[in-house]
Amino acid sequence: MKVVAVGGGTGLSTLLKGLKQEVGEGISHLSAIVTVADSGGSTGKLRRIYNIPAPGDIRNCIVALSDIEDVMRELFQYRFKGDGIEGHAFGNLFLTALTDITGNFLEAVKLTSQILRTKGEIIPSTVEDIHLIAQFEDGETVVGEENITEYGKKTKSRIREIRIEPQKAKAPIEAIAAVEAADVIVFGPGSLFTSIIPNLLIRDLKEAVNRSKALKIFIVNAMSQLGETEGFTAYDHIRVFLHFTGLNRIDAAVVNTKMPSGDLLSRYLNEGQEPVIPDIGRIARENISVYAEDLIGEKDNFVRHDPIRLSNLIMKIARDEVFS
Q1: Which of 67, 144, 175, 303 is the 20 to 30 Å CA partner of 269?
Q2: For the residues of 262-308, what is the DSSP string, one character each?
Q3: 258 three-class SS
Q4: Coil, strand or helix: which one is 216?
Q5: pLDDT tens digits for 250-285?
Q6: Dist. CA 110–CA 10, nearest whole Å
Q7: Residue 304 phi, psi (nearest 5)
Q8: Paired residues of 136 in beta bridges
Q9: Strand (E) or helix (H) holding 2
């Protein structure tokens, strides 16, 4: 089957690490459509200097799908020290240099994917230099992915409206073609407002997803996120996703039911983050199939979906819902 994963940040790269194990087996073709609205850190600096789409999430997804030695993965994730280049990831600089040489961000992504021998196709959701703009319930308008999350943390105000500029930004034809050919489209996990939703704010991409008869799966985050989803239940994630994107349906939802261990849970609670309540009944009443399992691992003192468990469940859902 053909699978398209849509999102950004560490959530999408985690999912891809698991799904790549299925390429050549249950998955005939894997595509990742990745947000380029990031504005912080190394990515933000390179965007301002070179007027290019954000390379950071693209880099992470290329590394996640790569089929190369560990040292090359470490190289692309390496961050420099010292004045001038401090904090820049080698992979971000590599993508920026290739874009400057070829004059084409999408071509730079394709060439980098070839060099790292990815087991799937990485496609930016647009090759235009887009910016995320949010209006909060307190009336404030905030520009930039990083600023939006920070403002939400500081004020506790909710996002009332979110859009991109330029509003007429287009998706690459490769992204539209991948969606049109897909048997399964997966959204998330990841930052709801700043990693997942921005992809569907690109109008022609949203329209392609709405036209698609593919099975649409939404992976609910395991923990709430400061500045974006404090207090959100699993149902709230899906409700807000559909409201802000304008998608007409989600067919299946993936919900974690495992609680983090005591010490790790305490740290998250002290930082204001809580496990997302799996209110399965509310989701099921929306005619959405719910798959609730223990899905998280605890690596490097963070709560993350386990890539293999998550991938195995996605394949099971596809068999149940599409190929049964």
Answers
A1: 144
A2: HHHHHHHHHTT--BPP--HHHHHTTT-EEEEE--EEEETTEEEE-HH
A3: coil
A4: strand
A5: 999 999 999 998 889 999 999 999 999 999 999 999
A6: 21
A7: -140, 150
A8: 159
A9: strand 2-7
Looking at the fold, whether 149 and 24 belong to one and the same domain comes out as no
Q: Is the peptide bond before 307 cis (omega within 30 degrees of 0)?
A: no
Domain count for the chain, please give it: 3
Beta bridge partners of 303: 298
Residue 216 near residue 206 (C-beta atoms within 8 A): no
Q: What is the bridge-based pairing of β-strands 159-165 and 121-124?
A: unpaired
- Strand-pairing partners, residue 254, are 219, 291
Residues 6+ apart with CB under 8 A from 109: 58, 62, 95, 122, 123, 124
What residue ranges of the chain have pLDDT lower than 50? none
Range of the domain at 119: 39-124
Q: What is the pTM of this model?
A: 0.95
Cis peptide before 166 (omega within 30 of 0): yes
First to last CA, the chain: 13
| Helices 56-65 and 90-102, packing angle to 10 deg | 110
Q: How far apart are CA 233 and CA 85, in angstroms?
A: 41
Same domain, 287 and 302: yes
The β-bridge relationship of strands 29-34 and 296-299 is unpaired
Distances (CA, A) of 137 to 147, 161, 225, 229, 310: 16, 9, 18, 14, 35
